[in-house]
Amino acid sequence: MMLKLVLDVIMLGLLGATIFYCIVLSRRIDVLRRDALSMQAVVAGFHDVAARAESGAASLKALAGEGTAELRRRIEESGALKTDMDALIQRGEGVADRLMEATAVARASAPSRSSRPESDGVSEIEANAAAFIKSLRRAR
Fold first, then answer.
1. Which runs of E-coded beta strand occur in 62-120?
2. Is this structure's pTM higher than 0.90?
């Protein structure tokens, strides 16, 4: 009988230790479940952020494509304008050369400067015309 009592006390102690350990494990499992739920929320948030970033990247790529097309169109327009400007400069140089020739012919056929009175307006116009011709030639 004594042996049975000792075995019952040992069994009671082991059952108590098992119950204690089960309580500790239950608490740890509860913590893991809470952490798993919070981890799911974090993963869902990360998924949303990744989806928005993907959408933003697609929008940015579309805008860059539109900007590239607009830039290409403006470059083509500027090339056409450059061609027109080159043609206008060439025509302007031709006109300037004819003006210079006409001025030289007029000076050669006109009486000398000492016999006619000096006109400030004419010399100013000649100076402006010469400066304009020089600037046209430099612009080319």
1. none
2. no
